[in-house]
Amino acid sequence: MAEASGAGGGDGPSDGEGGDGFDRRRFEARLDALVREHRFTIAVVFPLVGAVTLVASAEGWLPDPLAYNPLFVLFGVLVMRLPLVAGVLPLVGRRAAASLGLLTLYAYGIELVGIRTGWPYGYFEYEVPLGPMLFGEVPVALPVFFFPLVLNAYLLMLLLLGSRARSRVVRLLVTIAAVVAIDLVLDPGAVAVDFWEYAAHPDGVGGYYGVPASNYLGWVLSATVAVVAFDVAFARQGLLDRLEACEFMLDDMVSFVLLWGSINALYGNWIPVVLAAGFGVGLLATDRFDFSVGDSALVRAVQR
């Protein structure tokens, strides 16, 4: 079956103004303009400030009201997600919404199971609240943290694979491997700044910067579920067309490289640093690290 160019193969978003007066196209255009106007601030300044703040929190350099402030953390994450949200939003139709809804239920469910039983990630617990917590155990914003990691990997692999991405088996396997590689960067950094901790267990904790091997086996499972969900939700050609038209769509991956690459470097986690640099090379190869147009708001401020 040929893949349609829109979201979900002919099940794309409705056009124009809805019955309640909401003009989706106008909203999407304004969001694009907002992200484009503040591109450098969102993709570079926010993650670097975030890295400094998280390290300062972990080292006890910030007073209690500021250290690990959950609203500050959540706000920063949401801002860094804006380029991806703006890029994907025009492609979200009924099929994509249904797929994302099911994936949300899976994410909450597997996280609760993981915290309560140690399966499939290993025994762990959140050391600081990352915003409001569901049942006091799982961040309500979990999809905001998890989904973009997978979707960024999926989009980057589409660009890097080129015509080879036409094979569903190839693009799924390569993207799953990329998602696990992303967690090889994320988890050591998150453990270093005390976001979460893997508890002592009779089987012992693995030697990868305090992260057990079971965590990555669990990520293979969750990455597979999430990558398949995105592959069902969005038509490949529709994503490629949007990537072509939306130069900032992968800026959230730029933020990831800067934020977690910096944190891992500060703590001497050199394997994660090399992996983060690898993603940076991939972004450079696809012209996604190009901020030559600058951040016009920032430029105006400097000129004044």
UniProtKB/TrEMBL annotation:
It is an enzyme of class 4 (lyase). Residues 1-20 are annotated as: Disordered. The lineage of its organism: Archaea, Methanobacteriati, Methanobacteriota, Stenosarchaea group, Halobacteria. It comes from Haloarchaeobius litoreus. This is Bisanhydrobacterioruberin hydratase. The chain crosses the membrane at residues 40-58, 70-93, 100-119, 139-160, 172-196, 216-235, 256-285. It comes from the Archaea. InterPro entries: BABR_hydratase, CruF, CruF-like. GO terms for molecular function: lyase activity.
